[in-house]
Write a structure and sequence with these properties.
Elements: H1 8-23, H2 27-32, H3 34-47, E1 53-58, E2 91-93, H4 120-128, E3 137-141, E4 150-152, E5 155-157, H5 163-171, H6 187-190, H7 192-199, H8 204-228, H9 249-265, E6 271-276, H10 294-298, H11 309-331, E7 338-343, E8 360-363, H12 382-392
Parallel strand pairs: 1-6, 1-7, 3-6
Antiparallel strand pairs: 2-8, 4-5, 7-8
Helix pairs in contact: 1-3, 5-9, 8-9, 9-11
């Protein structure tokens, strides 16, 4: 008698073992390169129904609600949310949302229903990333030092704020000696033997997919090299450090977004979080008209102007970073397979309010309603949003799901 599966994740685990066995992929080869495991998981990913990846984006300090909320069919956006017009058809703007613990200093509980346990990104990683090289990744941009979004079994996990380090960790040793090689160089060389062994076991279509992944990795590496002054280094020495300056905040944010999209595309992980700045607003966009720290653009820097000209400019820019991230997933072909939750720690950023909290869901293919803003309510919080995401991902079926809330937000799921 055929033994039944406990749930879809038990089936996925068994199916993956069958794929490895039928392809003759050994555990040693899997351990030699994370790209090998990711490539083999691509076989399963294409056969699955529904989204299977999770991304949380943290944009601190809320908004001014009257200058944020778009209309119900997302055809008109105020200044603070205007950048999302480029990805409107992929988004669901939640309305009139509350917050379970709004204000400063609550970052560890934005995507967690306790001060311990696992945050949502870690919990989704435990469920969705089974068999993948990385359980979860948590990246940031000038995010460390003011509270941490991610908790792993109660332990705080600092953001990886450096795109160089994030890329190196995910895609391998950045190699030594020489400059850009033009071929499959640097990072790819670190995986050469494992990739050669894998290549001999793939069909023509999968070889094309593998080559596409490698090309995307090279392109991202080249962008890091251009921005960071080159990745060339003498044998045995570290690559040139990335300049973590406010002047390059946007470039850093976009690179982190691209790295996550690439990691999802290569099936290196199924769960990620990305933070732009920190809850205290101790960061700046000096290339904007308002060049002071973000916190000052919210409080005082507007000189009593009720239109909040400085906060409007800085929050608009923050929104553009999140919209870029959603577009990066779309461009890599993984947005439909990913449920995105944009979270924050308050509603009105000037008043530190708990009402009209700007929360967005995106992606998810046919699992969530998109291109609309007609769901939500004051009785629902970011915890209800991430629980809704978990249901869209079927992660609530898992025995290890932390169950951050009990109710989904009505009208979001299809």
């Amino acid at each position: 008698m055929k033994k039944p599966y406990k749930n879809k994740f038990d089936k996925k685990r068994r199916d993956f073992l069958k794929v490895l066995s039928s392809a003759g992929i050994s555990r040693g080869l899997m351990n030699a390169s994370p790209l090998v495991g990711g490539m083999m998981l691509s076989r399963l990913a294409e056969a699955q129904n529904g989204p299977s990846k999770s991304l949380v984006i943290y944009c601190p300090d809320g908004c001014i609600p009257s200058r944020w909320l778009p209309n119900s069919n997302l055809t008109s956006f105020p200044i603070m949310s205007q950048p999302y017009s480029t990805v409107a058809s992929d988004c669901n703007f939640l309305r009139s949302m509350g917050h379970h613990r709004g204000g400063h200093g609550v970052v560890p509980t934005i995507i967690n229903n306790s001060w311990g346990g696992d945050s949502f990104d870690v919990n989704m990683g435990r469920i969705l990333s089974d068999g993948m090289p990385f359980t979860y990744i948590n990246l940031g941009v000038h995010s460390n030092g003011h509270g941490y979004l991610t908790k792993d079994n109660g332990a705080e996990v600092p953001f990886e704020d450096n795109p160089f380090n994030a890329f190196d960790r995910l895609f391998g040793n950045l190699g030594g000696g020489g400059g850009n090689t033009g071929g499959k160089g640097s990072v790819i060389d670190a995986h050469k033997d494992a990739l050669s062994a894998l290549n001999s076991k793939l069909g023509n279509y999968e070889r094309q997919r593998l080559d596409s992944h490698l090309t995307a990795i090279e392109e991202t590496e080249a962008r890091l090299a251009d921005l960071g002054g080159g990745l060339s280094c003498s044998a045995g020495s570290a690559p040139a450090p990335f300049a973590l300056e406010y002047d390059t905040f946007e470039q850093q944010a976009n690179l982190q977004a691209d790295i996550i999209a690439l990691a999802f595309s290569c099936n290196l992980t199924a769960s990620a979080s990305l933070a732009f700045g920190n809850h205290q607003g101790e960061f700046a966009f000096p290339y904007l008209n308002f060049s002071g720290i973000y916190h000052a653009s919210i409080h005082g820097g507007n000189n009593g102007d009720p239109s909040y000209p400085h906060f409007s400019e800085t929050r608009n820019h923050m929104s553009s970073l999140s919209a870029y991230t959603i577009k990066a997933l779309r461009d890599r072909g993984v947005l439909d397979d990913t449920v995105v939750c944009e979270v924050t720690d308050m509603g009105n950023g000037d008043a530190h309010g708990n009402g009209d909290v700007p929360l967005i869901m995106a992606g998810g293919g046919g699992a969530i309603q998109r291109g609309v803003s007609n769901a939500g309510g004051a009785g629902y919080t970011p915890l209800n949003m991430i629980h809704t995401a978990a249901v869209a991902l079927n992660a609530h079926q898992s025995s290890v799901y932390q169950r951050y809330e009990t109710d989904v937000i009505p009208g979001v799921l299809t």
